[in-house]
Each structure stands twice: as C-alpha cells, then as structure tokens.
Design brief:
The chain has 139 residues and is α+β, with helices and mostly antiparallel strands. It has one domain. 40% of the residues lie in helices and 19% in strands. A two-stranded antiparallel ribbon has the order 1-2. Helix 1 packs antiparallel against helix 2 and helix 3 packs antiparallel against helix 4. The protein is globular, with a radius of gyration of 16 Å.
C-alpha cells in the first residue's frame, strides 16, 4: 500500500487530470480546481473521495471523477499528507492554447481578483481585477 504522501500526490495529480481532460466549461474547471486546493489545504486529516465529489462536483461529474481516481489506484478514503505537493498548492496556473499563462495565488479566485468564464465559441475569458504593480520580461 502506498504511503499517505504518495496517495495524496496521486489524488492531486489524477483530480487535476480529470478536471483538465474531462471538464469543458472553464468556470466549472476553475471551481473544481479551487475546491481541490481548498480540500487539500483543509485541516481534515483524511480525504474521502465520495464526500469530496458530492460536496464539490456537479452531479454528472461525481461518478466519472471517482471512477477516474479508482482506475488510477487512489483509495476511496486515505489519510492526507501534503509533504510532496505543499508548494504546488500555493499557486494556480491558467494555461491557454495561445501560449499565454497566468499564474496567481490559489486564493485569487475566492478573493474575486480572477474571474474566468466560457465563451459561446469554446474559448475562455479570464478577467483580472487588481492594481497593476508592474510588467517584466521573462525568458
């Protein structure tokens, strides 16, 4: 049986894989990712996949999500240990087909700094409402 650290890491990996590969609506994807980070950072010592799905996912996504995790070898319930993923949970990255990437603190969506919505043509609209502190080049 894998350690709690490995199981937690695998849960995180498979949950993000499901969200990015199976959920089409950008706003729903953002909501699910925010819920995932919140659950992992919560003070609860254990994670129950069915409870997470019931509390955070739309009805049509609950069973496929649980099946995806089960197929990937994640137990239905397991003790959480964030040692292998703690640094990943601090920031979210939004990656777009054009190559644009926006990185933000994980709580930016809850703080209403970021808002993402799906457009009728399938593209996404990401809006940032904040004070601009600067622009730099990156290479």
């Amino acid at each position: 049986m894998p350690s709690a650290q490995v199981t937690t890491q695998r849960f995180h990996q498979l949950a993000e894989e499901y969200v990015n590969d199976q959920v089409a609506d950008p706003a729903t994807r953002a909501r699910y990712e925010t819920a995932l980070v919140a659950e992992l950072q919560s003070n609860r010592p254990a994670l129950d996949v069915a409870s997470f799905a019931e509390q955070n996912l739309d009805v049509d996504d609950r069973q496929p999500f649980a099946a995806h995790l089960q197929a990937g070898g994640v137990s239905r319930q397991f003790p959480k240990n964030l040692d292998l993923i703690k640094s990943k949970l601090r920031r979210l990255q939004y990656a777009f087909a054009s190559g644009v990437r926006v990185t933000a603190p994980a709580d930016a969506v809850d703080a209403e700094v970021l808002n993402i919505e799906g457009l009728p043509d399938g593209r996404s609209h990401l809006e940032v409402t904040d004070n601009l502190n600067g622009i730099t080049t990156r290479g």
